[in-house]
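Good morning N.,

You mentioned wanting to compare the apo and holo forms, so I went ahead and generated the holo version with NAI. This is what I fed in:
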Amino acid sequence: MAEASQYVEHARDGDVHVLRIANAPVNTLRTEVRAGLLDGLKAAGGAKAVVIIGSGRNFSAGAEMTEFGKPRVPPSLTDVFDAIEASPVPVVAAIHGNALGGGLELALACHARVAAPGAQVGLPEVKRGFVPGAGGTQRLPRLIGLDALKIIVGGEPVSAEQAVKLGFIDAVVEGPLEKGAVEWARANAGRSFTLARNRNDKIAGYDAAAFDAAVKPLTARTRGQESPLGCVEAVRAAFTMPFEEGLKVERDQFQRLVSGEQSQALRHIFFGEREAQRVPDLPADAKPLTVNKLVVIGGGTMGGGIAMSAANFGLPVTIVETSEEALERGLKRCEANWERTVKSGRLSQAEYEKRRALLSGSTDFEKAVGEADLVIEAVFENMEVKKEVFARLDKAARPGVVLASNTSTLDIDGIASATKRPELVIGMHFFSPANVMRLLENVRGSATNATAIATATEVGKRIGKLPVLVGNCDGFVGNRMTGKRGPQVEKLLLEGCLPQDIDRVMEGYGMAMGPLATGDLAGLDIGAAVRKARGTVAPIADAVVTAGRLGQKTSKGYYDYDENRKRMPSKEVEQIILDTAEKMQVRRRKIEDQEILERLLLPMVNEGARILEEGVAYRPIDIDVIFTNGFGWPAFRGGPMFWADRMGLKAVRDKLAHYAEVTGDRNLQPCALIEKLAAEGGSFASLKRAA
Ligand code: NAI
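and this is what came out, ligand included:
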């Protein structure tokens, strides 16, 4: 173990002893910090009060998650908390930046808490698939009653100011925090503090009905997830059991969940989202260009959403359109969207006006583009149109400015060839609705240089996106992989399923929406047009479109829709399916849920492996992050490559080979990488480590 004293600094300010957690960058509570706090409390003898504060940007982001699953090294957080609670003088937590998870639990074990303005406090454990494990579920309800449910089950942090109102922070201290906290501790040292564990006023008179009513809205949208329910049970114990017994319930829930598959999946995605944003082969000196003005070409569905994202995050943006009418339509759509958010109470009028002021429009292409620090093109999906636009952009934009395209299928090199600056051309593939979806696939062409990549990454992050760099190929990563699912959907319908069977299985797995309902939402004519262009057929899908069932926009697609867009199974579609099967002489059979799941997910895994072979994605985790952020794949399932690893690549290989044979779909032939890893007993995760 490294020296505990390096991780907790001591200072004496008159009669107040200060302990500073010094574990950059976020002060996780690693073993040395815990030991340092314990030593520090012993060394504080004679002081009138003790202040615990974080150095750097944070109080503490909580437990050191890399210590999970390893043998526990004492002292535990509970040992530290016991020492705090046994202290003869008050121990005051002084919070700035974030106090999250174990960080907040440490503060809750103290006699009192003060915070800098704007500090964020919360218990996000539920989002990593477990429950707070160091008394948070027992102490917080004792301080604030049922309001604790929202913080613990919801997992969203609150500001210090809100925490004061709720009653679990004693005061917000203006000015330098350490000085203010020391003064506060000195002034209040004589007070008698009741430790959270000894408070009973807020948990008295447990009312099961009121408790369940408070839980209901918090678990309404966490279908299939275990950790919110674990949190509920732990908090319930705070209301129904003595403190020590409640702690036991919490500990049991923590241990059960933290070693479970969902938590491993959620942590895989949590760390993966950080990793995916690091581009491995970018030279260390690659610098993003300064972008103070974004220009978006095309104010349609995507252009409008991209422009809104920029304005939402304070980046001035101009939409360029071909006519005043189209421009007005585009700007109006953005306004209407923001106004809806204001109406729902999620955006203040003042913030709306600030955002609206950052958004402008122009029909003067040359002038607007001449003022751009970065251009993102979102015009029609047609190579000739894109080339024309890029040739014009190249002339109008200042030298050195990056030109990005939001194309969802077209070849970035083809687009770049229309310019004299192919090294500064890059794909920035947003997902619809672009102002909401977090995923951004940045697509590297063969000439794209480090400056263009660094700029697209930086601007993506700045406007609230999660940029993942991918290679240039048809469909890039996400759409290319989901594209392989389509033929199996068609085959499953033919062989025995109805749309609702397939969607039920996928939604039961946790997908936001099944593939057929998703098709209805996007419009079935889009897929039909792609099949026509590629010269492929899908007898059932084609027959559904021919029957005028284009999806939600015609109130009928694979499903019938009522006026509230509620979907209902369709008799007409069932008949189309039965007729097509008969015509093709397919004997329909009952298909088990497991087969449905495997036949939809395995083709994606196989294509994902090909994508890794080709280097279109750098790492398996990049693929998992793409799916959990842009394709409705539940984070608690960890993404397609994580799913495959759990199944074991040998089983994946065997099942793919089996389905390739029985369905005659050669796309399901296990690719070379899967063959290799299966033979070696390897996994996608091992691939990452070897790289
Ligand atoms: P859209 O048809 O809604 O919008 C295109 C807009 O571009 C129209 O308003 C049109 O007036 C304008 N436009 C056309 N030529 C122009 C020019 N020379 N100068 C200025 N404006 C021009 O199309 P949408 O859906 O927004 O798609 C745009 C791009 O985004 C396409 O490349 C598409 O593949 C891609 N994309 C679309 C997604 C979607 O779900 N709709 C998802 C991801 C990417």
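The longest strand covers residues 8-13.

Happy to go through it together on a call whenever suits you.

Best,
F.
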